[in-house]
Amino acid sequence: MKRTERCIAIAGMLCTILCCSACGTRSLQTEQTTSSEAPQTAYVEREGKTGVVVCDSTMTDCFTLADADIGVPSVKQTKIMEGELQDYALSAGDIVLILDKQQDQTKVMLPYGDPPGIYGYLSSKIISTEQEDISSGNQANVMNCMTYDAPGGAELGEMSAGVAVLSREGEWCQVQSLGTGEEPVWVHAEQLLFDFDQSVLDTAE
């Protein structure tokens, strides 16, 4: 009788072990399948060229990218916020980086803004690369540039930053450091730099 009970107990233990093993195998297979089926986005480095929007417009299909190592030619990483960003309104004179220009539509990135690095698409017809148009842009860079409290006024100190151009008055421009909320200052118009050309991360298409 005792031998029978012992056999029954051993058989029960073996069944339990086999069931647990099977469940673990199914769980591992499910995880592997989910991992292998997860969509991946290839990233590439593109040479962004400075352009300017010549009329009020809206950037569509906007997205931003997750951090990735630009030093790697192609990085697999999940793209974030695609489709979650609303269309982005641009004003005439806003600077953009041209990433991929086609006949009807151009992929661009904003080298400034909140959040920075917003990507999207614009009609190719409304983007200019003429230096005369770009030099009238709403954004610029300054390097070791003396600032003033008014045109021809008192010196306030040097500035090196990306700036929004708020107004122009003869040889002077009123500017404000981008994204800082600092008080506007005045600079000589000739100190504004409108070259935003740079390598940026983008999705491979």
Mean pLDDT: 79
User: Runs with pLDDT <50, length 5+?
Assistant: 6-11, 17-38, 73-78
Shape by Cα distribution:
elongated
Proportion of residues in β-strands: 35-45%
Order of helix and strand elements from N to C terminus = HEEEEEEEEHEEEEE
Largest sheet: 9 strands, antiparallel
Note the gap between the termini: 74 Å
| Class derived from helix and strand content | alpha+beta
- The number of E-state strands comes to 13
Helix content: 10-25%
Distinct helical segment count: 2
Can you walk through the features of this model?
The protein has 205 residues and is of the alpha+beta class. The protein is built from two helices and 13 strands. The chain has helices at 2-37, 131-134, and strands at residues 41-53, 57-63, 75-77, 88-90, 95-101, 105-109, 119-123, 127-128, 139-148, 155-169, 172-177, 185-188, 198-203. The strands form two sheets. Strands 1, 2, 3, 4, 5, 6, 7, 8 and 13 form a nine-stranded antiparallel beta sheet that branches. A four-stranded antiparallel beta sheet has the order 9-10-11-12, with no helix packed on it. The longest helix has 36 residues, at 2-37. Mean pLDDT is 79; it is low at 6-11, 17-38 and 73-78.
Q: Layout of helices and strands, plus pairs?
A:
Elements: H1 2-37, E1 41-53, E2 57-63, E3 75-77, E4 88-90, E5 95-101, E6 105-109, E7 119-123, E8 127-128, H2 131-134, E9 139-148, E10 155-169, E11 172-177, E12 185-188, E13 198-203
Antiparallel strand pairs: 1-3, 1-5, 1-8, 1-13, 2-4, 2-7, 5-6, 6-7, 9-10, 10-11, 11-12
